[in-house]
Specification:
It contains 13 helices and 9 strands. It is an alpha/beta fold and 370 residues long. The chain folds into 2 domains: 233 residues, 3-Layer(aba) Sandwich (Rossmann fold); 125 residues, no CATH class.
Amino acid sequence: MKINTRTVISCAALLLFITVCGYADVRTEEGEMDGAPFRILMPEEWNGRLVLFAHGYSGTTQLGRRGVPLQDYAVENGYAMAYSGYNETGWAVGAGVACTEKLRQYFVSKYGDPERTYITGASMGGTITITLMETYPDVYDGGLPMGGAVASPLDFWKRTIFDLRVVFDYYCPGIPGTATEFPEGFTFKDNVVPLVKKLAEDKEKMAEFTNVTGVRHYELTSMMWFATEALKELYERCGGNPFSNMCRYYSGSSDDHALNEGVPRYESDRGAVEYLLKHYEPTGEIKHPILAMHGTGDTLVPVEQTHRYKELLEKKGNGHLFVLKVIDRPGHVTFVPEEYERAFKELVAWVEEGVKPTPGDITYAGKKKK
């Protein structure tokens, strides 16, 4: 598809240069498109394949200098690599989809139409990967979501973020405002961190909190950041609270009756629900292979997210186009380079040679990282 680059790229903002950037015979193009910084790495001996990467939840649009997963492997093996910083921060699924697709169109207009186009992304970038595979089924030949929140956002945010916040409020009251209202001057450092530290130091209460939420003491701070700062950003984006826990039954405590009597209850705002569904609700309508990677010990985006998407594909008759590779390791998107590369190779073999991967553990060299 040809596009008029003058209408897509702001000449005043464009920063375009060619450099080696640490790779032999690789041209690096950087610039800004519709307010979103981008980077393209083009090998001199291009193999005709393009790999686009979608990044996860971030508070900045800056690309950084370290590159992205698969970048080294891709350019060293003749693949062109391209990625955008998006023109929005936070839960910017809509912006991520639009900016990545515009970048692909720009690549085509300048370098030519690739023989194959692959899309991969981590965390929220996995969400964007699935969205692009569903929205442009005739453009993207294969997808590799990594630790992606690929089920319904209502399911992901409510089960792992919103529920965490309301349970925390039950065990550790004291955060100013409520789980849906944040007063002026609220900060995570001043208003939440002291309570997090207090809970972590109370071994008995922490153990019970873990039984209810699944959140362990060493990830409590990062998870509560999402349950406050990221939740606040999502409410602002949606224009209200998209979650209801009026019928939610919490379990795992020493007294579930007291827990459910004491947990704060909230109704959802219809407009906020509609906004969230509009900007990502999976359809299961895909035409090409998707190979997903997920950690079994991922608390932020549980592997059940991927299982739910698989169930949707089965209902749509597209389950044969999806394979899940699991890594038996705690943490969110804690894969090592060899695992990224192995999964990508298997995806390419599936797309180009018809060799479907076998679901299962792809932990590098068979060693499970603890």
